[in-house]
Write a structure and sequence with these properties.
InterPro entries: Knr4/Smi1-like_dom (IPR018958), Knr4/Smi1-like_sf (IPR037883). This protein is α+β, with helices and mostly antiparallel strands. The protein has two domains: 159 residues; 166 residues, 3-Layer(aba) Sandwich (SMI1/KNR4-like). The chain is 44% helix and 9% strand. The chain contains 13 helices and eight strands.
Length: 347
């Protein structure tokens, strides 16, 4: 038996259990947003104003923002109200920018420069303005503005930008990638292109150009030079690091606890800390096999290339659990190429 819109909304208002509320909310959106999006938004905004589950008033903000179209002025008053409510301010910022556009700048700058506001909300206002205007107010800062410190708020720049009339910036150039990702020739290049296509799907969801992630990039020459001085690498892995160096890449899989974080050339040497050497003192770890190079980890469980077993330009990959008292390695893939094939689902 199908549920009417009014009955679905009534059930939402009557629900007192947070988990069941979430299910009802998702069902309401899925069932009715396509037919009457505005009615769904109206119901959710009303709940955000007066619903009995206080924590869900805030959680609904992302759903509301997702349903509202850019520049849809009808909902601007709701977001103008929401940024005045402490529990809703953080996400209300994005809603106001989405509906009011540039006209939101003065209000958000006033919020950002108000010392009495929580730092997280001031930082969020600056971060959102940066993303919308393509101005680099968020450069070299954490992707999550909740981690920004008061001294990192670029208020002087923000106010100067306001005096200049809010000009749009140039944004951030995407990382430099090797041409073979678009036009692969060899079997290994085709494998890298397949991996990059998987990462591209995740890049579309990550909308923070100041903190790029899930990229395979061309490594800095100085990093490659330092690595080549320290280790003799299999040709396949050396090529991988030079032309397809992972930039904040963590790949999911049934074999992993948190996902396999593959190290890029910029971090490879430092990441040996805690394994090959003590990260605090710099002393060599006596129990670490010298031939193993850590190329990634899953929740601190190392994945390593065996540099003593290089054949045909490649080497096997071993893994072990950390915190077991001693390292007990087992082979995970017969080669680095085999590891990538596992990660891409290509046998």
């Amino acid at each position: 038996m199908s549920v009417t819109f009014d009955a679905a909304v009534a059930a939402l208002y009557e629900e007192k259990d947070g988990s069941r509320f979430s299910t009802l909310k998702d069902k309401l959106i899925k069932t009715f947003a396509g037919k009457d999006r505005e009615a769904v938004i109206r119901s959710l905004t009303q709940y955000a104003r007066e619903g009995q589950l206080l924590h869900w008033r805030a959680f609904l903000m992302t759903d509301i923002i997702g349903l509202v179209a850019p520049g849809e002025m009808a909902w601007r008053p709701f977001f103008e109200w929401s940024i005045t409510i402490p529990a809703l301010t953080y996400w209300g910022i994005d809603g106001l920018l989405k509906t009011a556009g540039r006209e939101a700048y003065p209000v958000l700058i006033a919020l950002a420069t108000h010392d009495a506001q929580p730092v997280s909300e001031r930082a969020k206002a600056i971060k959102s303005i940066a993303l919308y205007s393509r101005q680099p107010f968020d450069r070299e800062l954490p992707s999550d503005p909740g981690y920004w410190k008061p001294e990192q708020l670029r208020l002087t720049e923000l106010l100067q930008w306001q005096e200049q009339g809010y000009p749009d910036g140039e944004g951030y150039a995407p990382p430099a990638v090797h041409p073979s990702l678009l036009h692969p020739g060899t079997a290994f290049e085709k494998l890298m292109a397949k991996l990059d296509k998987q990462l591209e799907k995740r890049r579309r969801k990550h909308k923070d150009p100041s903190n790029p992630q899930d990229w395979l990039v061309i490594a800095a020459e100085k990093d490659i030079t330092q690595i080549s001085v320290q280790w003799t690498l299999p040709a396949v892995y050396a090529t991988f690091l030079q032309y397809y160096s992972p930039l904040k890449v963590t790949l999911p899989g049934d074999d992993f606890i948190e996902g396999l974080h593959l190290y890029g050339a910029h971090e490879l040497r430092e990441r040996q800390g805690g394994y090959a050497f003590n990260a605090v003192t710099g002393e060599t770890s006596e129990d670490w096999p010298a031939q193993l190079l850590v190329i990634g980890d899953d929740a601190a469980d190392p994945f390593c290339l065996d540099l003593s077993d290089i054949k045909d330009g490649d080497a096997p990959v071993y893994t072990a659990q950390h915190g077991e008292g001693s390292w007990k390695f087992e082979q995970y893939a017969d080669s680095f190429t085999g590891l990538i094939k596992k990660l891409t689902g290509k046998s």
